[in-house]
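Standup notes
- DV: blocked on the single-chain target, sequence here:
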Amino acid sequence: MSVSSREASSADRFRVRYKHELPPASKKNDDAAWKQYLHKTQRSLQQKMIEMQRLAQEQNEEIEKVNRERKYHQQTTAYELNALSQEWRQLCVKNMEIQSACAVLETQIDLLKREASERGWNLEEKLESVKPLQSQ
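- DV (later): unblocked, structure below
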């Protein structure tokens, strides 16, 4: 590719991108035509810059909105998680208390059975006679 064709290709891409026509070949050396072209291009670039700043601002606002929502959900979830964790700990303590109470009752039952056996009482026979009463 020759230098002039590369320059033409670059100029075509520039023209398409910014939609400004370069001064015609007949005005190639006309300072006023080039100044007008530069002025239009600068205005276009300023408008594009303003648009990009507006879009960036909108993007930042959207990011802030998402971050606020995420923070709110994290805080709400943390509150719920802490409440559930506390409830779980309380239930674990209750379960340990119940297990301890059951162990105490089992020990008392074993002592009562031993005492009944020492006195010659047949608890199994007595318990079977009580069962039909409980089912009624």
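- Follow-up: The longest helix spans residues 31-118.
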